[in-house]
Design brief:
The protein is mainly alpha-helical. Helices cover about 60% and strands about 5% of the residues.
């Protein structure tokens, strides 16, 4: 399997895994979804919004023009319906990004936008962007799992082996 094919598989796996979190969120009350949990982002939906926003933002910057369209504006905090719509937009953008990406482009460098507080200009590769997005998603998915366990809600853990070889749907908790 090529490196690009592996990245494509990871992207599809993450899309499928995120569906499970939305299924769990749909079972929670609006009050639980809106409660500040003192985590990296206050609410479960804001953490999910951050995961999606990172996907969109980094792929927009790594894309050769024209990159994905601006995502739908979200409320603060976002509603479950807004997150579901945003996820559809991001998933489509991820698939479109990979549809046009070639193996050679993994080494292509582009200027990384500087977050607030960073003064150093850097160029990064598309490969490093994709690795960063994998790490970012795994980090925040673990955070969501821990927060759901605190609510005695089983997270929708979708095991890579199950996804790749068994293809069973993620559990809804």
């Amino acid at each position: 399997m090529s490196e690009l094919a592996a990245f494509r598989e990871w992207a599809e796996y993450n899309i499928r895994a995120r569906e499970g979190y939305l299924a769990v969120f749909e079972k929670l009350s609006k009050e639980e979804l809106a409660r500040d949990r003192g985590a990296s982002y206050p609410t479960l939906l804001q953490i999910q919004s951050h995961i999606l926003g990172a996907q969109w933002w980094w792929l927009k910057n790594a894309s050769l023009p024209p990159g994905p369209a601006e995502p739908t504006d979200l409320g603060d905090p976002p509603s479950l319906e807004e997150i579901r719509r945003f996820e559809r937009e991001v998933d489509a953008a991820v698939r479109e990004f990979f549809r046009h990406l070639s193996e050679e482009e993994l080494d292509r460098k582009y200027p990384a936008p500087r977050p607030a507080g960073y003064s150093q200009e850097i160029e990064i590769t598309v490969r490093d962007t994709l690795l960063h997005l994998l790490e970012e998603e795994i980090q925040h998915r673990g955070e969501l799992n821990a927060l759901l366990w605190q609510l005695d809600v089983e997270p929708p853990v979708l095991d890579w082996i199950d996804w790749k070889y068994i293809q069973r749907p993620p559990s809804g908790g």
